[in-house]
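My current task is to audit a protein record that another person submitted. Thanks in advance; the entry in question is below:
***
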Amino acid sequence: MAARRDDAVSDALDRLYAAPLDAFMALRRELVASVRVKGDPQASKAARELAAAPKPTRTAWALNQVAHRQPELVRAMLEARDAAAATQKRGEGDAIRAAVRDYRAHMTEVAHAARDALAVAGFGVTASQLRRMSETLATASVEGSDARTRLAAGRLTEDIDLEDPFAGIEAGPRGARKLEHEAPASREDARAAATRANASAVAEEKARAAAAQAAREKAKHEAARKLAKERLDALEDEARTARAEARRRETAALRAQDEADRARRALEEVEARLGTAREELRAITA
């Protein structure tokens, strides 16, 4: 019974954290009510657990969407992070840097997917939000952490401060020697690295926005050209039809004129014969 209750709560939490952000509160009330209606003590406990589920921040919600809709991206990032950590323990400088670069690339891919989720939902995306999502991913990637479990399940509720043991590794051999023989890089160094990554992401976003705007302008111009061409073709068809109708009516008018002329001549002949007949009659009766 308890296992079934746990499964039901887990399914309900999955629905809740995968839902649109603006539907979170209403859906939570609906799920709580659907559980409470059973009336048993286990259901009451499940309802309290659901009612206590906190609404995520906007950036945490975006990362949850990636975990629910593109889980392969999150899995690839976590696997790359584990590989980098294993390589770090072996102390192989070049291999460490290569592994960390691979991990960073996967993390950037997840952050960009989260950015796209925000954009699709109609939310603007700021450099600060990109930085917070990158910092959350860096910290939530740590193997065995509660944050990692929540990230993989798509149930993050808030941003997480940066804890990045790989900060500065990509800088080169000196950075690798520091990792092997000195204390881990400071949080300030890590934040600087995240800031550089976010600046690159912002620049990329601006380039994408500019390209999208150019594409929209081109599409708008092409649509206007197509509309003008269609209007011209329609007018030319109308003109051809009008010319044909005019010629038909002119031909009909000429034919009618000929018929009218023949009718007048026939009338004149009849009138002439009628006059002659009248004269003959008067001559006979005189």
In short: Confidence is low (pLDDT under 50) at residues 171-187. The CA atoms of residues 130 and 261 lie 91 Å apart. The chain has ten helices and no strands. Residues 2-51 form one domain.
